[in-house]
Amino acid sequence: MAAPLFDAQRVGSNPKRGDSPGSHQPAGWAWPPGGAAYGYTAGTMGNSGARAQFRHWNVVACICALAPACARPTPPPQKAPEATGHVAVPAPEPSEAQVPLQVPTRNASRLAFRGKRDVSFGTTGSTSIWQKSGEHRFKAVALGPDGVVYTVGHAPFTHGTDMAVARFDATGKLDATYGRGGVVQIGQRRAFGEAIAVDAQGKVVVAGYFYGKGGTNFIVARLSPHGTLDASFGTAGTVEHSAGQDNRAQAVHVRADGKLLISGYHGSDTNQVLCLEGDGTPCAQFGTAGVGLVRPVPGKRAFATRSALHGDGGIVLSGYLPSKDRMFVSRLDARGAPDAAFGTGGSMLLQDVAVGSAWALAVDSADRILVAGHAPSGPIVIARLRADGQIDESFGRNGLAVPLGASDEVYALLPLPSGHILGAGFRGLGDAAQPLFVLLTSDGAEERPSWVDDKAPRPSFIFGAALDARGRVVVAGDSPGDRWSAWVGRYD
């Protein structure tokens, strides 16, 4: 259940955004460990002589605002403090001259996500890398323990462009102890990284494609916590997979049972999900020889661009059909078979989208599916499906939200703990591109108008995003200016 959001203040003592516990703390308030400034409240409230009891978690307050003459409420019974390392300090008694507390005002956008650069990360909120002349791009980001940030993409190396994995510490500094100066090269054969995940042992798993005989092929690699290829996985740390002339892995996930699911396409009517065991061998009980197939419309080319774990070991894929300009969502069950109970025969066709634009997919805590695509007429369309693949008509207008314009692209969707939905991508193309954010309420309405990071160098693109344990959003992309650099940033 999403926590209600409150912005509480008391005359003469207003907690400012970002303050730590104890600073600007109003009398009568007890901040929880970690300094969360939102959540539930407890106390009594007077209204025309009657008192209404209310109680929630995280923040404790005494509020008496609707009736100016109401008496100070009797505080609730106090429990003995638990041994948490925090000292319980009684709140001072209010004086007669003090003005009663005002009723908290809901200001969800400020507390759910402000969209401001976290200046404690990198240089004023971001860090860029540039090795030598050539294209540097981060395509995805994942988070490790203690605020560590991992990214994957591609960069120029001695033998040409290859997959690149980088690690940054919690302050946004490139970790020189990881790989070679903070960056690991994978491939030496024109490999490109598209997706990244971190497993329960802290090992990084990346997926993408490389150019080989006959076209492109899947490549999956696993790295040790020190940034070396894990020799216990596949062949010397990598697994290659081919099923046609144009095979491109687009997403990778670590299931709860430790199995890896890698999704992508191979330029036909069939998309695929490759299942690998912890040692890199195909899963015997998944699909056929470890490969599950997705055909949204038999005989029509389809490109699965994103995927997400769904339900009890299943996976949903989204993408587009170029011949129909349609966005699709398909589901395989935990054994790699099309889920006949999802949509129609395992797939659902959605709103018309422009070719090549269905680049964002997410699953919320209720197993509802969020997907974004660019409509041919211009604006971004964000749709929500129920767990069974049917349109959720309680979202937006008949299941669709249209919060952005023709020059906007959304490459990541993040369901937030507050219940809000955050989209990240970019506005504009070429030299005009800027990092873009959009914040929706849980029912698909705009919580605030979409906005750009006007402090980022132009052009700058966001291609991946992740939510950290403190509710901050870490993004990754590139900035193809005078020096084509890859960058990572953090926002709160």
Description:
- It is globular, with a radius of gyration of 25 Å.
- It has one helix and 30 strands.
- The chain has a four-stranded antiparallel sheet, with no helix packed on it.
- The chain starts with 41 loop residues before the first strand and ends with a strand.
- The chain is an all-beta fold.
- The protein has one helix at residues 108-112, and strands at residues 42-47, 50-55, 126-129, 137-143, 149-157, 160-168, 183-186, 191-198, 204-212, 215-223, 238-241, 248-254, 260-265, 271-276, 291-294, 303-310, 314-321, 326-332, 347-352, 360-363, 369-374, 380-385, 400-401, 408-415, 421-427, 434-440, 446-452, 461-467, 473-480, 484-491.
- The longest helix is centred in the N-terminal third of the chain and has 5 residues, at 108-112.
